[in-house]
Amino acid sequence: KLLNSVCKRPVNDSETQDQSEIDRLLLVLPLAVDGLIKLNPEGGISKAVPPERIVDTLLRYSSAERLAVLRALNFYICCDELKSIETCIPEIQKHVYPLIGSPYHKVRLLALQISWQIEKLSSGPESMRSELLELSYQAERTPLTITDYREKIKILQKLSCTNPSVS
Question: Does any domain span residue 83?
């Protein structure tokens, strides 16, 4: 019920509402999504709250500055029955793909994971785009330490245009 009421609430940055109310709602939103997933309601998450409502609300507020909301979107996409969000895929892609170029590691990591999950659903795990997103995700996931840097270089070399599997 909490997630339903938070998603129904017409919170819009351009309205005259004060920023503290928006910030409070954005703190509750990821917790409500997390709670709903952990409760695992009978009939699935999509029976409790329509997936369009959850995705629309999360997309409206997910950005590089609001990492918790982006995490909630990632968690929801990874844990929910992905078939239920099939209608939202173009909107998710339009919003998340630009975040792959973010200067922030955590934002890129979440954007790549979301994009990879969605691409596997829409095109299949064997598609070229899915494989490229998976390689990018693996490279981003590799820690930036001296010992692990070599592994990251090997993964990134697989993305090279001179690599026969990419051409």
Answer: yes
